[in-house]
Amino acid sequence: MKLLNKALLMDDDAIRRAITRIAHEILEKNEGIENLALVGIRRRGVPLAKRLQEKIQEIEGTTVPLGALDITLYRDDLTTLDVQPVIHKTEVPFSLNGKKVVLVDDVLYTGRTVRAALDALIDIGRPQVIQLAVLIDRGHRELPIRADYVGKNVPTSKREVISVRVMEVDGEDGVSIQDMVD
Ligand SMILES: O=P(O)(O)OC[C@H]1O[C@H](OP(=O)(O)OP(=O)(O)O)[C@H](O)[C@@H]1O
Ligand SMILES: O=c1cc[nH]c(=O)[nH]1
């Protein structure tokens, strides 16, 4: 199976503007930064959460806590994976109790990653509320999960793949849609 690039959906400017808008939406919905915390899902959710933290700092003059979640051990397909999963670190260096946590990921598709992230979070503490921010919502949910903040809604077919690239992981910023071909 090969992936063929079909179209560029977002360039670096579009990603930057989406992050700026989402930062404002988070502040509006939560009426400021009180008890707010950001938790990125590894891998690309983490740099996106960091960018939101920086933007919120720019707007409000205060740094909100930032954490990183590895959901590998919480995946619902863990027992069926062919290869030994690589476990990265979960780093949430603050108490989640009573926090308004904004989970951050790059793509929302079936919702299974977010389901796993909710389990992982709730094992660490008891947030007051958990919200979800994603750069791309491509539809095809298999669980009753929705995002509170969306960079871009992209209607897709299941034969398509969304590729999100971020500078911190991939050396460039961009979002493309690709076709799966046999
Ligand atoms: O809603 P879902 O169906 O769970 O899909 C969304 C997830 O899929 C991707 O991760 P992937 O498992 O491809 O790993 P990667 O981020 O390391 O590429 C993406 O980063 C999301 O976390
Ligand atoms: O198309 C998709 C689906 C899940 N995760 C991605 O990164 N892209």
UniProtKB/TrEMBL annotation:
Short sequence motif named PRPP-binding, residue ranges: 101-113
Protein's UniProt keywords contain Magnesium: no
GO molecular function terms listed in the Swiss-Prot or TrEMBL record: RNA binding; uracil phosphoribosyltransferase activity
Top-rank EC class of the record's enzyme: transferase
Domain Phosphoribosyltransferase: 13-164
Biological processes, Gene Ontology terms: DNA-templated transcription termination
Keyword vocabulary terms for this entry: Glycosyltransferase, RNA-binding, Transcription, Transcription regulation, Transcription termination, Transferase
EC code(s) of this entry: 2.4.2.9
Pfam family name, one: Pribosyltran
Catalytic activity: UMP + diphosphate = 5-phospho-alpha-D-ribose 1-diphosphate + uracil
InterPro entries reported in the protein's UniProt record: PRTase-like, PRTase_dom, PyrR, PyrR_bifunctional
HAMAP family per record: PyrR
Function: Also displays a weak uracil phosphoribosyltransferase activity which is not physiologically significant. Regulates transcriptional attenuation of the pyrimidine nucleotide (pyr) operon by binding in a uridine-dependent manner to specific sites on pyr mRNA. This disrupts an antiterminator hairpin in the RNA and favors formation of a downstream transcription terminator, leading to a reduced expression of downstream genes.
Subunit structure: Homodimer and homohexamer; in equilibrium.
Family: Belongs to the purine/pyrimidine phosphoribosyltransferase family. PyrR subfamily.
Classification via NCBIfam families: PRK05205.1-1, PRK05205.1-3, PRK05205.1-4, PRK05205.1-5
Protein name: Bifunctional protein PyrR
Species per Swiss-Prot/TrEMBL record: Heliomicrobium undosum
The encoding gene: pyrR
